[in-house]
Write a structure and sequence with these properties.
Layout: H1 3-14, H2 19-38, E1 43-45, E2 49-56, E3 59-62, E4 69-72, E5 75-82, H3 84-90
Antiparallel strand pairs: 1-2, 2-5, 3-4
Length: 91
């Protein structure tokens, strides 16, 4: 499902009449989740799951082309854990 299909589906499901409003809500949700993760907070959407930020330490890797050892920098990554209700709905 792409962004346009998601907007249409949310509009149909929610009963909202304006696609621009639905798009603004989805973009705001994305921005709020991103800002919260940057601040180190977790975001829980009940029935859907939990977004969290996870720190990955610096580590050693290899260049697959040359086999040369290299250092992969530390980074933060987004992690999503599905809620039990979502897992149950899929099975």
């Amino acid at each position: 499902m792409n962004k346009a299909e998601l907007i249409t589906a949310v509009q149909t499901h929610s009963g909202l009449t304006n696609k621009k409003e639905v798009e603004a809500v989805l973009e705001s949700l994305s921005a709020v989740i991103t800002e919260s993760l940057k601040a180190g907070d977790d975001v829980t959407l009940f029935g859907l799951g939990k977004f969290s930020a996870q720190a990955k330490p610096e580590r050693q890797g290899r260049n697959p082309k040359t086999g040369e050892s290299l250092t992969i920098a530390a980074s933060n990554v987004a992690k999503f854990t599905a809620a039990k209700a979502l897992k149950d709905a899929l099975n």
